[in-house]
Design brief:
Number of domains: 2
Oligomer: single chain
Number of strands: 10
CATH class of the largest domain: Alpha Beta
Structural class: alpha+beta
Strand order of the largest sheet: 2-5-4-3-1-6
Largest sheet: 6 strands, mixed
Helix content: 25-40%
CATH superfamily of the largest domain: ph1033 like domains
Radius of gyration: 20 Å
CATH architecture of the largest domain: Roll
Length: 298
């Protein structure tokens, strides 16, 4: 699968947030590229730097004239093609990033983004993924047909809370069974979290596990920002939505555990890595929504 760089002009910085919110991106006919399902698209903000990346989950479609779009542009007819995407990773603003000249030289793309989306040369892909903070996880953009379908369904189809809960219950057993079988993912989290449980601080490596925040749905979910390093029992409670972590790093314990030793963890601060390895706020919010007992803002 290919890796691309797409530019957002400095006058419309909100377009990156709109792409994540709506799960699609529109391109003009002259700048159309034959993006394939599984391709990674990296967004660059003019006058800024790398913003993050998405994974294509649905082939590009031609848009009928007048199709509603959220972009702040005058001529809606220019945006004639649309493709669906799954949010993959975001680069925190505080992280120092390379200038465009450095990125262009490292990835083999043209010196200007005026030519539209540009394909990254294979020799520059690993460098770019490291800048995005996803290479160490061993994540792959080579999605199987089944994984592509799951990605599309999970991220883009509207589902009721009850449907998501039912889907989750069916997946919990499989998730727990698979969690020890992700060696690259676990190694990346051990490094990111300093070989210590994010919730308890336990540093006994043999009982530390790689937990997916958004449930495992193929290699593309094995991203460090979609993971937590947890002690085995905490991992199970996290998967069962009896323990969760909000975006500010606060640990929350379900009232169902009030009579257990785990209640002492409620209100404590998780030991989360900084920078590119910090868990995705969106992933944590998705997990929080599945905790019906959670009464604070995630």
């Amino acid at each position: 699968m290919a890796t691309w760089i797409l530019g957002i002009d400095r006058e419309n910085p909100e377009h990156w947030q709109l792409a994540k919110e709506h799960g699609f991106w529109d391109v003009t006919a002259p700048s159309r590229r034959d993006f394939a399902v599984g391709d990674r698209l990296c967004f660059w903000q003019a006058g800024k730097s790398l913003l993050g990346s998405v994974i294509v989950t649905r082939a590009i479609d031609e848009l009928p004239l007048g199709t509603p779009a959220p972009w702040n542009i005058d001529d809606v007819k220019r945006d004639a093609y649309r493709f669906r995407v799954w949010f993959d990773t975001e680069v925190p603003e505080a992280v120092g990033q390379p200038k465009w000249a450095v990125l262009a030289a490292a990835t083999g793309v043209a010196s200007t983004l005026n030519l539209g989306p540009q394909r990254v040369q294979p020799s520059g892909e690993r460098w770019l993924l490291l800048e995005l903070g996803v290479a160490a996880s061993g994540a792959s953009t080579d999605l199987s047909a089944a994984a592509r379908e799951e990605a599309r369904d999970y991220w883009h189809e509207e589902e009721s809370e009850s449907a998501l809960e039912e889907d989750l219950r069916q997946r919990i057993e499989v998730t727990i069974a698979l969690r020890r079988g992700q060696p690259q993912f676990r190694r990346a989290l051990l490094e990111a979290y300093g070989q210590a449980c994010a919730v308890t601080g336990t540093a006994v490596e043999s009982i530390l596990e790689a937990a997916h925040i958004v449930p495992y749905r193929g290699d593309y979910t094995n991203a460090v920002r979609n993971g937590l390093l947890l002690r085995a029992d905490i991992h199970t409670l996290f998967d069962l939505h009896l323990i969760t972590i909000t975006g500010d790093g606060t640990v929350h314990v379900s009232p169902a555990l009030v009579a257990s030793e785990y209640v002492a963890l409620h209100g404590t601060r998780a030991r989360l890595p900084k920078g590119l390895a910090r868990p995705s706020t969106r992933s944590l919010e998705n997990h929080n929504k599945m905790c019906g007992w959670l009464t604070v803002s995630a």
